[in-house]
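ARCHIVE ENTRY
Sequence with per-residue tokens
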Amino acid sequence: MIKIGVFFGGVSREREISFSGAKTVSQIINHSLFEPVYILVDSLGKFIKINPVQFEHKAISHFYPTQESIPEEYDEFSPVYIETLEDLTKEKHRKIMEEIGTPIPTESLSEEIDFALLMLHGTFAEDGMLQGLFEWLQIPYSGCGIFPSSFAIDKHLQQVVNEKLNLGDSRKYHMMRKDDWRKCNRNELFEELKSKLGLPIVIKAPYQGSSIGVSILKEDNVETFIKAVNTSLFARQISKEEWTELTMPQRKEYVNGLMSLEKGIGLPVVFEERSLLGGNLGEQIIYSPIKLIAKLNDFFSYSDEDATLFSFESEDMVLFEQCLSGKEFSCGIIQNENLEAIALPPTEIITTTKVYDFEAKYLPNASQKRIPIDIPTDKIIEIQEKCKSIFQTFKFDACARIDGFYTDENSIEIIDINTLPGMSPTSLIFRQAAEIGLSPTDFMTYLIYQSLNCRVHTAKRPYFFRQLFKKLENELLEENYHKKKKVAIFFDETTFEDARKKYNQIASKGNQNPFCVFVKVEKEETILYKLPVSFLLKPNVEEVIQNLDSNTHAAISHTIKNAKELTNFFVKDFISTTQKITLENLNDLTQKTIWLLKSETETTKKLKRQISEIGMAVMD
């Protein structure tokens, strides 16, 4: 089997989302084709092979660094990451790594794995850095190559290219370096930006992913403006009045908030101090939350100036953009074997928060997703064509996600490109791929297969990659791969999550082909619906029920037609709409059912009995 190195964690602020993605992979990857090897990239850039038992934790910070290695002074604070530990020698670092797994020297990675599946995000992952390392090590990897990765993470460069190539209607924008921000008259800057861009103003960290460091400034208030810019620079400005009014427990709570990578700025921080006579006393790096509290206490004992803290990994620039109004969308792009782009159905993002930020993207119920976006079909296809054009123009590989707006003026504006889309359970790419028939397990197989195909076409020394690609291709072409026994999973409105979990469990083992049957009870009679895989990716069972008798949207039908060749290769029994079936139909499909219904009504008991009477095995 092909050894798949599943890389997660990393240096960026999105390491916990990466952990969620790796956990998802552990549940859905096809274990009959691939042998996963789970490799944590710690926030100091070291590689650690871990046992998947660590996925029982909710976060990387819950098991690494180990509790025993964290000094007592951190006991009231979290999360604590390896870069937060002060005076960390090579020997101490290695000992901590060995407590959770096996450290792997960079030059030895090729001895451990055949292929790198990248679940990382943001800096030193999505920006071409890691792709360059794997190119050097001659290890094939998933997703886009060096150039499209480095281009896609640079939101400023995207704006410049947008002006040159007319990728949209060219929003007005303004860039500023951190040093200029520290020196400028902020009232004058705010007035200048309002005049140039109007209100609201979108303020971004231009080299981050997943909407981290993004604010939408709606208030005509300079203090709110300053806070928003500092958020994008991963800085905090604390006044003497603000700090001295806090009790000691409140100061600890404040610093604890700073330690969050998503909402705060993380530790360590850089504290730049000036003397009372005007000279620069230099920068001080502070690792410990207790020492940070002590430093702020000391500073405000003699200074009336604001204290400014910058993250050790702060941004050097901030991007100001004209705010768009309209329908926000996200469109996944994949490829067929000939490297031709296929646009998946674009999803409409309906946020319940002020902005589609990190929380709206990843927290349950923070946003709603509608597939496809609710606009005329010809405009949906126009979005797909524009996204395909961008994908092909900049030579993206295997998979990318392109975000944008269908504006109130009926124009299409591209706002961001993601070369390593998130793959946590709520991720859009799985839902969009399911519309053309790819289950999460099928999609992961596609991603590995197509990424290998791309490496064959783009690598400098592709001989070994070609062998690996042919090996996987031959396995997928084997007759037995698609002739596995089918198993029906029966569920009702109370067991939707159980059905989704059971489906993924069976699919990932690779020795059976599962399909789901929804049991609807009406007037003491049962109606059986065989469901497309896309229904299992719907956010809740209410949407499943609402769409049981609906037709396929015209834009999705258009997408299915364009993806037919790819779907036929990975999926042999694809259906795009629900099918009402009888027990006789069921008997022609399978001899085995899994019964997930928990209700014991006379109607459901009768159905279960009838299934057994026609000679089918029923497993609870």
About this structure: Residues 440-458 form the longest helix (19 residues). The chain is about 40% helix and 25% strand.
